[in-house]
């Protein structure tokens, strides 16, 4: 699933992917979850921030698609706020 959001003149793209469940060690099973890819661009200037994958390495995937989408949007907004603070 992919969502596009406008925020303070930027366009944030939040893309969610389902991770299948994986067997780690018998009988322990790591449940699947959702990963998020966040991209941010500023159309008037052509500026584009590098895409980011959430959750970070070593963290658990998001449990629900809604949780993943909200985390992705929140992260994109923080990236934009940081970009606006830089001269």
Helix percent reads: 10-25%
Q: Output the radius of gyration.
A: 15 Å
Counting structural domains, the number is 1
Fraction of residues in β-strands = over 45%
Topology:
Layout (H helix, E strand, L loop, with lengths): L1 E6 L2 E10 L2 E4 L2 E3 L2 E10 L4 E8 L10 H21 L2
Antiparallel strand pairs: 1-2, 2-5, 3-4, 5-6
Features:
87 residues; alpha+beta; four-stranded antiparallel β-sheet; two-stranded antiparallel sheet
Structure description:
The chain is built from one helix and six strands, in the order ββββββα. The strands form two sheets. A four-stranded antiparallel sheet has the order 1-2-5-6, with helices on one face. Strands 3-4 form a two-stranded antiparallel sheet. The protein is α+β, with helices and mostly antiparallel strands. The chain has one domain (2-85).
Give a brief rundown of this model.
With 87 residues, the protein is of the alpha+beta class. The protein is built from one helix and six strands; from the N terminus they run E-E-E-E-E-E-H.
